[in-house]
Amino acid sequence: MAPAIVLVEPQLGENIGFAARAMGNFGLGDLRLVAPRDGWPNEKACAAAAVAEPIASGAKVFETVAAALADCNYVVAATARPREMVKPVFSPETAAVGLRKRAQSGERCAVMFGGERNGLDNDSIALADAILTAPVDPGCASLSLPQAVLLFSYEWMKGGNPEGLGRITSFDGPAREGLATPGTGPATRASLFGLFDHMEGALDAAGFLRPPEKRPAMVRSIRNMFHRMACTEQDVRTWRGIIAALTRHSAASKG
Amino acid sequence: MAPAIVLVEPQLGENIGFAARAMGNFGLGDLRLVAPRDGWPNEKACAAAAVAEPIASGAKVFETVAAALADCNYVVAATARPREMVKPVFSPETAAVGLRKRAQSGERCAVMFGGERNGLDNDSIALADAILTAPVDPGCASLSLPQAVLLFSYEWMKGGNPEGLGRITSFDGPAREGLATPGTGPATRASLFGLFDHMEGALDAAGFLRPPEKRPAMVRSIRNMFHRMACTEQDVRTWRGIIAALTRHSAASKG
């Protein structure tokens, strides 16, 4: 079961909503609030959550940190510095990997974040098993509350080896890393060599590949540009069309 | 040189500020804006940037995408779906690793993000070398503009193998992954075995480790609890104090 996100004494409704949206973007849904400053429900939170509005409106509210954590087996506290606590310290990535293993063993886990002004107090951190701290520029270390929630949520999703990237729509499947070649595919060498013949023939006819002693190096250079382009079959057809059009235009001009 | 972040037709000043803060958190500083809707400078942007206000107020403004990218050698466009483009697709992590290598070779790079409403249009994406897409829940895939900037910025910082985590203050050095043991250190086995003797002696005297045939298993169980606790030297002293206090209290009660 995916970990709960516990916001302790959050102040701005917008930030609660932005945090809910970050959770939704990365497959988390259990949002818990401890004593939100402006009460609950909060219209600004639901508006800021945008597509994740159900996560914001479904947040559970508790009076104390202990009550919010009562059903959890393992709790990580997010803080920008480990304070004077003897506790394991995790980066977002390591925390996410560890929490995924615990979740797979049936443990209910939570990640706890403090309010905007001061973060978690030491008594709240003392109720957690471990500390979560992000790698930041030490001179500009203060993450906003929703940004901190996002980092953990993103690493949670990454650790689940998602099958794709980005949005899936009725006309787009999930994206994958690597060269996207929608509706076409990488060109075969035969297509590419055909293009080379076409191009080099046209350039010879135009008198471009001169003087003869420089021709081999010029040809290699042009071929290498085409290789770096990683042409698809469609690209090869496009280039053949370009060469034919330029050749015709040139012939017509002369005529 | 660290990559520039280019926001194309951003709408809300707050989001420009939040993006600037995310950049500052992770060591980026070159913010470029193409035709921001509400003009520039923008007070809301500078306020939202918080600690990264200098990044927001130092943003460079351009009229066109082409002008904003003119000095760049390599450009990545962030979009939730690769559209009908034949382009390499990178996750934030892969993009950050690749851009770091290019930066180390002296290339000037940029990562380009679209406005809140529709993201980048196809003509802007066609000015980029590659596409950046995050692993998201496909049912809730819409990242906010500052959250999208944060993911790339975070991976950029991670790829630089930062030396520590979190904030550095006058009284805290950088945190590191692993067990934080401020002012103390992991206990030696000798200290721990001394604690075991103390504890087991007190429990024998109190008649807890009975019946005798169950004593070995009870002792192993208690010792294992202490091992899982990963005691520091200070923890061992604390436990010895606890045992002594409870023993005294018990003796006093009986007396």
UniProtKB/TrEMBL annotation, chains A, B:
Pfam families in UniProt: SpoU_methylase (PF00588)
Keywords carried by this UniProt record: Methyltransferase, S-adenosyl-L-methionine, Transferase
Domain of life of the source: Bacteria
Domain tRNA/rRNA methyltransferase SpoU type: 4-154
Entries under InterPro entries matching the protein: Alpha/beta_knot_MTases (IPR029028), RNA_MeTrfase_TrmJ/LasT (IPR004384), SpoU_MeTrfase (IPR001537), tRNA_m1G_MTases_N (IPR029026)
Coiled-coil zones: none
GO cellular component: cytosol
CDD domains from the UniProt entry: SpoU-like_TrmJ
Gene Ontology BP annotations: tRNA nucleoside ribose methylation
Record GO terms (molecular function): RNA binding; RNA methyltransferase activity
SUPFAM superfamilies linked: alpha/beta knot
Family classification: Belongs to the class IV-like SAM-binding methyltransferase superfamily. RNA methyltransferase TrmH family.
Official protein name in the record: rRNA methyltransferase
Organism this protein belongs to: Methyloceanibacter methanicus
